[in-house]
Design a protein that fits this description.
Elements: H1 2-24, H2 29-42, H3 48-69, H4 75-83, H5 91-115, H6 129-136
Amino acid sequence: MLRLVELLSFSLGAIVISFSDLRYRIIRNRDLVLLLLIGLAVNLSEDLHLNFSYLFYVTLITLALLVFFGGKIGAGDLKLFWVLSFWVPTFTKWLEGLSFSWILGGLFAISYLAFKNRRRQRNMCIPFAPFIFLGFLPTI
């Protein structure tokens, strides 16, 4: 029963945040805080300290992505990666979710450019939140 509540709350958060990212190209902080609190409540157990132990590494990776991409990736997407670390049980699962997200987003971008008849846009803006949630879904 708890697993079903976890999946339903994750799905509801994914729908709300993805819709906001698709429509307005923004991930609101209040949605991220709500997802964080739900993640803490659902996953509140004795292994919660493990989430805090690898939170330092997750923070370093998200900061490295911010520096590496120099503003090409939104801050909301990076905060979403950080918040999802509270939903994933281990650091390796978090890295898998991160990898799946990038692969899904890249495949979408390639297929979007392949089927679009217009000239390629150099500054194409793709909402990344749906791909983040889809990438992390198998790890949760």
